[in-house]
Structures are given as structure tokens and as C-alpha cells.
């Protein structure tokens, strides 16, 4: 299970909507094993944003910086997030090919244009991906502050 706060999801929604129709990405920092709690987010530049709207490559400098900061502490990089503009929040074939680290949780945020013309995050789902089997399995996502996420379209 992945536990996040409504505020953290709102940050991801905002970044995903701002990047639309490109993908955005970032790191999930947290702790825990069976129940993984996200303590904070680190937004990262998507190095492929200008080349391919449907791909992302997290700036490795952010990854190094995070690993340096977290060394010796209780927190670690528990996963990362990226957006899927006009696509469901499920791992793409490319995502599966890039899943080098089976312990990482992939949070994917689906963004679509709403009737008023503005991009809106419609759903976010978490997964674990296994490159060797080419499969993914869902990770239940729990929002720690339930009341604050009503009307946002998150599964409850
Ligand atoms: Zn993807």
C-alpha cells in the first residue's frame, strides 16, 4: 500500500496539469515496507518533454541529489511519479521496458482536457512493474486526509 496525503496528490495534479500535453515526473520520498508512506515529493525536470510528448526521463541530477540528501537517514526514494496526458493511469509498454528497479513504486497520473478546456488530473494509480515478466500489479493507494480530496476524482 502507498499512503499519500491529499496535499501531495494536489501537487502532482498541479504539475501534471501544468505540463499537459507533455509528461511531468518526480520522485516519491518516504519510508516503510509493506505500507509505504510518502513523506515528500521532489519534482524533476522531464528531459524528454520537448522531444516526445509521450515519454519521460527523470533528470538524473535530481536522483543523485536525493540519494545524497537521504544517505544515512530513515527516508529513501520509494518510487516516482509521472503523468499520462490523454491516456489511462496504467503502465505503458515503454514504462514496462524502463522498469529496471522492481522495488520502485510507479505512480501514474492521468490528465485529460475537461469540458471547460483546461487540463485536469482525472485519476492517479500506483503500480509495481516487473521488467523481466513484462507485467505490472496495482499498489493500493490510500489518501491520508480523506476529506480534502473529495471532488478530485480519486478512488476512495
Ligand atoms: Zn508512462
TrEMBL record:
Transferase among keywords: no
Keyword Hydrolase found: yes
InterPro entries on file: JAB_dom_prok (IPR028090), JAMM/MPN+_dom (IPR000555), MPN (IPR037518), VirAsm_ModProt (IPR051929)
Alphabetized Gene3D superfamilies for the sequence: Cytidine Deaminase, domain 2 (3.40.140.10)
Pfam families membership: Prok-JAB (PF14464)
GO biological process, one term: proteolysis
Alphabetically ordered keywords of this record: Hydrolase, Metal-binding, Metalloprotease, Protease, Zinc
TM annotation in the entry: none
GO function term, MF aspect, one: zinc ion binding
Stretches of the chain forming a coiled coil according to its record: none
Domain MPN: 2-131
Protein name: MPN domain-containing protein
Amino acid at each position: 500500500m502507498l499512503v499519500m496525503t491529499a496535499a501531495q496528490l494536489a501537487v502532482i495534479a498541479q504539475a501534471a496539469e501544468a505540463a499537459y500535453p507533455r509528461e511531468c515526473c518526480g520522485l516519491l520520498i518516504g519510508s516503510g515496507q509493506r505500507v509505504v508512506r510518502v513523506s515528500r515529493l521532489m519534482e524533476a525536470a522531464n528531459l524528454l518533454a520537448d522531444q516526445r510528448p509521450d515519454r519521460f526521463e527523470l533528470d538524473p541530477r535530481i536522483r543523485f541529489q536525493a540519494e545524497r540528501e537521504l544517505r544515512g537517514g530513515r527516508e529513501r526514494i520509494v518510487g516516482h511519479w509521472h503523468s499520462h496526458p490523454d491516456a489511462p493511469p496504467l503502465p505503458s509498454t515503454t514504462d514496462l521496458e524502463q522498469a529496471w528497479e522492481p522495488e520502485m513504486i510507479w505512480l501514474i497520473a492521468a490528465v485529460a482536457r475537461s469540458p471547460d478546456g483546461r487540463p485536469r488530473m482525472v485519476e492517479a494509480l500506483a503500480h509495481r512493474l516487473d521488467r523481466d515478466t513484462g507485467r505490472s500489479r496495482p499498489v493500493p493507494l490510500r489518501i491520508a486526509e480523506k476529506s480534502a480530496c473529495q471532488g478530485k476524482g480519486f478512488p476512495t
